[in-house]
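Pasting as-is:
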Amino acid sequence: MDAIDLKIVRALQLDGRMKIGDLAEKVGLSPTPCARRLERLQNDGVITGYGARVDPRKIGLPVTIFVNVELEQQSAEAVRDFERAVRAFEEVMECYLMTGSRDFLLRVVAADLEAFDAFLEHRLMRVKGVRNIGSHFALRALVRRDVLPAM
């Protein structure tokens, strides 16, 4: 990636609906070379998709919970099984494999405490191999970025 590719990526992080002509002008290219670079960035997996940023509170999901999960064993198979299970849970917005005393960190959204309790009881606690679960409720987001830092 060169400086122009980085400009394209940054511009699209700020406005993913930007028309190719506007993008080309913003990064200092004509539309055809800009479109070729954009296609390459998509094909190379640098740009992984486009979507709308939605305020979860406005659609009835105001509660954010960070959940630590510890597995009974940390084998590759156990990690794959857990990953497969949580991918099916639409409440899980993000899942990270972690270092330290906990194996996974999940960011979960819920409508309320009862909905989160149901998620725990009927979904997460039923995943084979889970040893321990700890939850932390977010009071409010102080920083949330969708744009990666400039390089």
